[in-house]
User: Fold this.
Amino acid sequence: MTTTPAPGADPYPDSHTPLQHVDLTDTGLPHADLQHPGLPHTYPGLPSGAKAEILTRLRGALSGEGRPERVEVDRSYRRTRGEGTDLAGLFAERVMDYKALVLRADPHTMVDSAATMLRRAQVRKLVVPPGDRLGWLAATGAELVLDDPPLTIDQLDAADGVATGCALAIAETGTIVLDGGPDQGRRVVSLLPDYHLCVVRADQIVGTVPEAIARLDPTRPQTWISGPSATSDIEMDRVEGVHGPRTLNVLLLA
Amino acid sequence: MTAVRPEPTFLGIPPFPEAAHTALADLHLRANLRKATHTIRERRAAVVGEMPDWEKLRRAGAAIKDDVLAHLPRYLEQLEASVTAAGGTVHWARDAAEANAIVVGIAREHGTDEVVKIKSMATQEIGLNNALAAAGIRAWETDLAELIVQLGHDLPSHILVPAVHKNRAEIRDIFAAGMGDAGRPAPDGLTDRPADLAEAARQHLREKFLRAKVAVSGGNFAVAETGTVCVVESEGNGRMCLTLPDVLITVLGIEKLLPTWQDMEVFLQLLPRSSTGERMNPYTSMWTGVTEGDGPRSFHLVLLDNGRTDVLADPVGRQALRCIRCSACLNVCPVYERTGGQAYGSVYPGPIGAVLTPQLRGINQHDVDPQTASLPYASTLCGACREACPVDIDIPAILTRQRAQLADLGRGPVHRGEQAAMKAAAGAFAEPWRLGLAQHAASFSRHFIGRKGKIGKVPRLLAGPLAGWTASRDAPAAPPESFRSWFKRTDGGLTEGDPATAGSPADGGLEEL
Assistant:
């Protein structure tokens, strides 16, 4: 069966009418139709036998003489950095390798440090996620704009910058992970403004990627950020600053 | 319906030797390629070198992918169930036409005449942009390199950096000439500074991101256990496409699965270091179905076969399905570095393309066209690709298997000269006197020695079998004296005489010939 539309013909004469999807090849596994009645609908003109045929082809490819052998995965690669690694120091060094500014501060100096960074980046209007964890930034003199109710795309685009916390950070790769927690907000909030101030507590820093994966919840939307937006597309030279925030500042709290 | 201009395709590209011949003559292209591949090679070597457990990660990566391939039906159904449970919709596509029809159907259902796209090999493979164009829907490429290719009405030449064959001055010209037709024009007086070019792309694409209703992406990984899909990128164009539009359509090759969330810990180390030569790429996005109040309200996952089940059926060739599209093999390949990617006539160029493209086009099953049949020969079999591969794909083994498949069935490029040379060699080795005669003939061949003491293209009339052999490669010059005659003259080296009397090769002088 082919789905290539005939030239000039409209292959979807009735594409706005949801059809009930009846899959006669149901394998007994949880199925879309059972869990979400009405979803998904198929698109008129499309064959519904694709799944069955692909699975049949796969089973054929995996049977007979060339059948693959059973594989054991050896996970003896490193899970942690060695004992005694200064994780905060390593994290700061690796983030700076991406040409992001890192300042270390404690509860006494954090307002001054944040104010310094915001002034340097000429940020006055600073978006903060709902939840009041970053309310202390008001003391820097910046005008805080709470994303509650959600700001429009244009409002976000017009802001000077955004401040967020993070879910965790990875020292070895200089990575900050956001997962939509109360001090991080929607993904788009940390994307549209041209400046991102991320507040990282030293106790949020893990050594390696495996440690981070073990701690993160895959059902939450995640954004892993390693330095400001960049490209290597021109002669494979790295240039900082394309679509995401062109300036990334990290305030590292001891 | 407004007419949308179709993009160029690889259709009609000649077989590799011919295409390579044209590319090799382009000194400008060779300079661009050399600079780019060497830059990234060094960066990769540095960040791989600092990982003491790199080999263990590679082996784990290969094993995880082999496990995926061995149980693909089960993992695919598990992925479908978990994505559906998280609020996404899963579609299955046997081939390019089906996948394109699904994407076109979804875009039409949402009444849009444009989509924004994240760079994706799968959508290039199926020619999605032209399928959308045929339906009157514009596909805006948002990756910087893809934008360069699209605005220049060009073809991609690299998996990671499709515009690697263009230098900064050429990119400036493409932006200045092409942006106005596609939307916001390039600023007046645009320079060729990379930062200015990136800024021009930012300005040009911003309005497209902010108004788009539908986005199309590929996917680097999809976790069967959780339904999580991952896109790895640098510029933030991916994040824009994944969070701003209402509808997200992801086209995913069926081999892109990982069984568990934990498996991400291996691949998020292997991929960035192998690909861009960074400890981590600037942005990695992971999402599971749809999230209330954050990102698209509707998520469609299109699972694409398009020849992959045929690749899986081949016990040697199936390891090509481990590929995570990092492009490390391109950057270290002596052939790719000189010919560039377009000579391979496929969206998958370089060593991985030479093994994947023929298989996706059915070389394991049936006859293939001459262009496809030329790809297994687009390699010196030096093995640098396998060494660089983060999932240890034995590319040389697959290449030799494909050459054997072609030769056995008499389908490969027929090297009459090569066959004649082999026949002649068999005859020469049959009797000692014949070998002696052949060696005298070999000494005579020194009259054709070119620079660096190699025999280049030999005049056909004179050289007989050697002409076929040297049409596509140099043969080392034969020594002036054969081992046999040296052994005879010096009594096995016991009475080693003055080399001058034996006719010194005087190599320094030969360089000038």
Observations:
- The domain at 72-308 of chain B is CATH 3.40.50.10420 (Rossmann fold).
